Amino acid sequence: MIIAAIKPFKLEEVREALTTIGVRGMMVSEIKGFGAQSGHTEIYRGAEYAVNFVPKIRLEIVVADELAEPVVTAIRTTARTDKIGDGKIFVLDVEHAVRVRTGETDDDAL
Amino acid sequence: MKRLAKLSLSAGIAALSALPAWAQEAAATVAEVAAVVEKGDVAWMMTATTLVLFMTLPGLALFYGGLVRSKNMLSVLMQCTMIAAVAMILWVVYGYSMAFGGGTSPFWGGFAKAFLAGVSLDSTAATFTDGVALPEYLFIAFQMTFAVITPALIIGGFAERIRFSAVLAFVVIWLTFSYFPVAHMVWDASGLIYNWSAIDFAGGTVVHINAGIAALVAAIMTGKRVGYGRDNMAPHSMTLTMVGAAMLWVGWFGFNAGSNLEATAGATLAMMNTFLATAAAILAWSAIEALTRGKASMLGAASGMVAGLVAITPACGTTGPMGAIVLGAVTSAGCYWFVTTVKHRLGYDDSLDVFGVHGVGGIIGAIGTGILCAPALGGTGFLVEAGTMGAQVMAQIMGVVVTILWSGVVSVAALLIVKSLFGLRVREEEEREGLDLTSHGERAYNL
Fold first, then answer.
1. Domains contained in chain A, number
2. Residue span of the structural domain in which B202 resides
3. pLDDT digits (tens, 9 = 90+) for B411-423
4. pLDDT in tens, B339-384
């Protein structure tokens, strides 16, 4: 499984790149977080608020082992803007997978 | 509004008395003739009355609602709605009488017109023109919408922490002992401030300073919101705040140009000034922000808009258009400085800057009115007998000082009474949870 946090406006580009290399599904959620990019300040009539968490998109993609590296590369090349806050990618092992409709398991379920 | 308020006798009675007068002495003076009600004036003033209601519902409600956190949105909308309802009933029960009941005390109008006693389809109220009158019902309705918006303005001072019952009790006491008497003092022909010849065309003292001081006192006595200065209390919807501010501007034409009471050139001057002072104030606030912070914000432009509207309120009938531009810009700068710098130094929590915008803007506007009505500056002239700027400004300052003291004292007393009856604040955990759920049992947004 690949978990990635990316800039929200990059989502469509990343989805296209992943479907081209054969990824057939992914989970997407809107999240907030911080890393090297550390938020910003908002000012309302002189009242300053530090907004420490920045909106990001979290992708979760489960693929067969041989597709993992191409997925990481595709995300890294498309989500990149060369500016702070481009995000992070994590790769994890998945123990088991089941397709709900058919009961197929593991690679067949993906 | 009204350098008037000497309500004429009911047209019916006047007509009856005029006829025999003519029969007996042919040379009866024209002044004896019953005042004429013009259909054009009636149509305009009914429109203006509706516009002023629109300022409160939904204008002010949305302007304020957008500025609070989403968990308190409904509490603000509900307080505005309930205050409107309470003020309307109170107005016809005794408010109108206390303000314009015909009593000759400089402080209040008596109870002669309580429950609208003596008001009929035939009774009239005077305008600025001799011999031209409005149906009294229309004058009552127009003035009623002013009694609605003034207490609604105050809730911005204690928003996000006040107990609902406390709001209602406070409004009843404050309207009774501050709004009705001050309206009488400023606008009734027997009123104290009226007779000093202070100019307050549409309610700079009666509405804005009156409400601004009450909000300041209420903000201090209620105490700061939990987490003030630490938690993020950013407005939950600048979109609704802009929508509400723009509705206020539209409604304000009823407020200012309607205060002319007739569909005449005087009303069109008030209309022009209500455009221009506001435009200048928006530009001033945004320019200051852009220069000092590098970015011009929507909240800044909306705040400038309201500051300009407040500023021109007392002056709109007596200032020239160029004077209006100056007054709007200067007041905007004054309010900006107050809400961004002075307030934070003083450390009180006036949640939505009612005092900073309406109080400070009202004071600058009221005093500026005394300067800009000068014919040399394009104004329509001084009202004071001495006929000098110094005397006019002095009359303006005296009106401001009396209003500040009156509203301040009444507000302190009213809040002490309400505190002992109901308590002012909700419990801390209710405040954290939000007033929408804990006071009203519903949520503004179920997305």
1. 1
2. 47-123+136-440
3. 999 999 999 999 9
4. 999 999 999 999 999 999 999 999 999 999 999 999 999 999 999 9
What's the total number of domains in chain B? 1
Residue A36, chain B, CB below 8 Å: the answer is: no
B20: in domain: no
CB proximity A41 to B under 8 Å: no
**Interface residue of B67, B225, B228, B232 to substitute, partner A, most A CBs within 10 Å:** B232
Residue B207: Cβ within 10 Å count: 27
What residues make up the domain containing A74? 2-109
Tens-digit pLDDT profile for residues B382-413: 999 999 999 999 999 999 999 999 999 999 99
Q: What stretch of H or E contains A60? A: strand A54-61
- CATH code, A18: 3.30.70.120
Candidates A44, A48, A53: best to mutate against B (most CBs of B within 10 A) is A44
pLDDT at B13 over 80: no
Cβ within 8 Å, pair B293-A43: yes
Residue A70 has pLDDT above 50, yes or no: yes
The 3-state DSSP class for residue B27 equals coil
Contacts of B356 in chain A (CB under 8 A): 45
- Shortest distance between the Cα of B338 and any Cα of chain A, in A, equals 10
Distances (CA, A) of B258 to B53, B125, B244, B299, B366: 12, 14, 20, 28, 19
Residue position matching structure tokens 């200032």: B319
Token pair for A22: 């054969």
**Is B314 contained in some domain?**
yes
